[in-house]
Amino acid sequence: MQSNTSRSDWRFTVILAFTILLPCLYGFGGKFLEFIHIFRGNTDGMFAVTPIVNYLLASLGFFCMLAWATMRGMFHDIEAPKNTFWETEEWLDHRETETAR
Amino acid sequence: MTNESLTRDVPPNRDLIEERLVVWYFLASIAYLFISMFGGFVMAFQLIRHNPFNGIELLSPGRWRMIHTNAVAYGFIANAFLGNLHWIVPRLTLRPVLSRPLSYLIFGAWQIVVLSTAGGILLGEAQGLEWGETPVWIDPVAQLGLGLVAVNFMAPILKIKGPMYVTLWYFLAAFVWTFLTYAMGNFVPQYFVCGTSAGAVGGLFIHDLVGLFVTPLGWGSMYFFVPILLKKPIWSHGMSMVGFWGLAFFYPLQGIHHFLYTPIPMFLQYGAIVSTIAVEMVVLTVIVNFFGTLKGSSRALATNLPIRWFFTGMVFYAITCAQCALQTTLTFQALIHFTDWVVGHAHLVMFGVFGQWLLGIMTYLFPRLLKTEWASPKLCEWHFWLSAVGLFVMALDLTLAGLFQGWSWAALQPWDASVEISQPFWIVRIFAGIAMFTGQVLFCVNLWKTWQLSPLNVAAVFSGEPSGVSHRTV
Ligand code: HEM
Ligand code: HEM
């Protein structure tokens, strides 16, 4: 099957993914360490337990979703959905015009 | 899928999309916009010491300020998005939503939630949570409503096999996020935690509401309509996916940027600042993708009004991004926190970005829904210019007001002095508001005239089945 994704598109996507996801990992890792410190007796930080647990749960959910989507091949041909969407929209519009006649 | 299998498997458009409901949601959305603007004016006149309703408890500006924000978020924006979803989800999944009767039930229930929120606030029953002022006795109903919305729209989306278009990713996430965010914000601080911890959850709630409800629905809609309006696919689907996952991982972290310099532990405040800056990059993916798609089609800005609404919203988004990069730093916070700078930011992003996009979508969809062209393209133009210029003046004015207020406080001037220097800015805000308001009145006049030309009469849209087709836009 011919891929809809050119090499340069791929390269661009990967570079952007890293620029965006690396700071994300940095933020996440930092938060996690702080979480551990709090549990080691920093009473000041006890305030933070509720939001941090919320965040960890939400992120865990997303992590699972990302893993699931990757395994189902959702990102195999990453540009394909934009073309499929475009074609079905055209088809729907065409059918609507035909029915109106 | 081939065209033959599409023809065989996809129900006819009239069974696929409940167009009548889209119209109803849009009308409800516009009605709440007016209620909200009324509230905005009451508060704005109070601030320039000309409250026309002085002494009338039910028209007290404090209560109407809450109605202003609640009607905007849950009335104008939420209704417009729900209408949008009824158009977009079936077209993208090629399946109708789970249940038509359920869709109508949700429509009714949502209006009851919003109206009783307004009633509760007017009667002094507001819950003590910013952006969650919905009285506590309505919270369970609203929560249930959000659950039903998720079930109704997720059913067709989850049946899709193979890679999904970015819009559906955003929508799926928004259904889950909004449900969880509402539960967290309205129940956790009310019943489970108190003090600074409740403050931290409150911060998370405010920002998650804008970031995990308005933002994904807005971006998802943008990725749906812009390619259609420009008649070409979006520039990079890969980049849009990076934006999606970036939003998913960063956004929940940044709520505490609403509470910088508070007793919340400093490491959490820094964490929020770092992730806020990361979100800037995520927003950038959306802006770059839009302009990448627009490249080579910029003539459309002159000829295609809906795309111009999107473009203006995107320019305001870029301005907000720059503004946010400043306002989230501790240095800048010391100057602008509690000032009108923040109110300027809120208007810029709520009306300037998402409001503009939604009005653009209505400008595009009403002719398709009513099966006729706009009665007056000129009025459409006036609607656009009055809204865009009015908003721009309001945002600029409030941003400047915020700076002057901040400097006045930094110079340790008495509080009254900052109120005095704000007066000219607050007066300008009223004029900007009048421009925005007039724009919406003209929109309604035009809508009414268009309705008269429509093959569907008013009664048909409220009772009968819309029929016939038109692809004409402004
Ligand atoms: C007729 C036009 C409008 C006027 C006169 C107006 C006026 C106001 C006023 C006076 C406030 C309170 C500011 C304060 O407490 O100091 C406010 C807040 C707010 N308005 Fe408007 N407004 C208008 C339109 C809108 C629209 C169309 C939207 C969104 C779609 C909007 C969104 C908001 C938001 C989100 C806030 C809360 C800001 C915050 O808490 O920082 N307003 N507005
Ligand atoms: C690049 C993305 C954004 C950043 C970095 C950002 C940053 C901020 C910050 C730092 C504040 C707090 C300012 C203060 O109180 O001193 C704030 C307030 C606010 N933001 Fe944003 N924001 C962003 C996007 C949005 C979006 C998309 C919306 C709405 C759809 C929004 C709506 C608001 C509102 C309504 C407030 C005032 C909240 C209140 O009532 O206190 N923001 N934003």
Short description:
With 101 residues, chain A is mostly helical. Chain A has one domain.
Description:
The complex is a heterodimer of chains A (101) and B (474). With 101 residues, chain A is an all-alpha fold. Chain A starts with 6 loop residues before the first helix and ends with a helix. Chain A has three helices and no strands. Chain A has one domain. With 474 residues, chain B is mostly helical. Among the domains of chain B are: 9-162; 298-469, Cytochrome C Oxidase, Chain A (Up-down Bundle). Chain B is built from 17 helices and no strands. The two termini of chain B are 32 Å apart. The chains are: A mainly alpha (101), B mainly alpha (474). At the A-B interface, helix 1, helix 2 and helix 3 of A face helix 1, helix 7, helix 8, helix 9 and helix 10 of B. The complex binds protoporphyrin IX containing FE (HEM) (2 copies). The site of one protoporphyrin IX containing FE has 24 residues of chain B, from helix 8, helix 10, helix 12, helix 13 and helix 14. One protoporphyrin IX containing FE binds next to helix 3, helix 4, helix 14 and helix 16 of chain B.
CATH class categorisation of the domain at 298-469 in chain B: Mainly Alpha
Distance N to C terminus of chain B: 32 Å
Please tell me the overall pLDDT of chain B. 90
Percent range for helical residues of chain A?
Answer: over 70%
Unreliable stretches of chain A (pLDDT < 50, length at least 5) are none
CATH topology of the domain at 298-469 in chain B: Cytochrome C Oxidase, Chain A
Hetero ligands: protoporphyrin IX containing FE
| Counted beta strands of chain A | 0
Outline the low-pLDDT stretches of chain B. 466-474
The CATH superfamily of the domain at 298-469 in chain B bears the name Cytochrome c oxidase-like, subunit I domain
Order of helices and strands of chain B: HHHHHHHHHHHHHHHHH
Overall form of chain A:
elongated
